[in-house]
Amino acid sequence: MSALAVEISGLNKWFGPHHVLRDVSLGLGAGEKLVLCGPSGSGKSTLIRCINGLETFQEGALSLCGRSLDGSAAALREIRAMSGMVFQSFNLFPHLTVLENLCIGPVHGRGMARAEAVARARDLLERVRLSDQIAKYPGQLSGGQAQRVAIARTLMLEPRVLLFDEPTSALDPEMIHEVLEVMEELAIGGQSMIVVTHEMGFARRVADLVVFMDAGEIIEATDPESFFRAPRTPRAAEFVRQIS
Ligand code: ADP
Ligand code: MG
Questions:
Q1: Residue-wise pLDDT tens digits, 40-54
Q2: pTM given for the model
Q3: What is the ipTM of this complex?
Q4: Neighbours of 49 (CB within 10 A)
Q5: Which atom of ligand 1 is found nearest the CA of 16?
């Protein structure tokens, strides 16, 4: 039996007195896609930041691909290496070209040979259809192009689990599609992923599981059709009404 890509049980997190994640448990099988949704402030970003070690938590257990966060620096390092995060705001280095944005982490952080990094970067930029933008700087790109660069950059280190935090929320409507299309291709390719998004069409086409959070708690976890067509709780129904 192979380990789950992500396994969380009884996770609780407080920011000072504020209880922001309440007894969160979930499992993501290898190759599965989970869409995480819920009102603003419900704890979605905090949860996925816990999954890749950007945030700590006070109670509960978390493991990626069988590796548990056990308080050791080695486990934290491995969990960070197994997960890759794509942010709403791209977070590209403005003073580096597209190619260098992809290569700097692997070459300087992980000791990847430069030739290998460049070859891999070219490959990934082709996959996200940006081969012609390789020498540009982030300021010369559209939002949709910048987000596709950010996705390619995250893929440089071959994460076992990809985490997306509202990847299309900062984009003009006409650019949302090109980013979702790249994400769907990754999904079809078998990438395990957790996507925080309110894009219902994407969730319907791609998600194995939709998880709805409110006030730090998982309220529903079900398949997308059931969730969007017949949410079981009033809070989820209200949320679906608002995003429809
Ligand atoms: P979401 O992504 O669903 O909008 P967040 O995970 O960003 O929600 O936030 C959950 C709650 O935690 C909110 O009440 C937010 O104000 C609070 N919060 C988030 N980050 C911090 C922080 N660094 N310090 C204190 N409170 C925070
Ligand atoms: Mg958020």
A1: 999 999 999 999 999
A2: 0.96
A3: 0.98
A4: 17
A5: 25
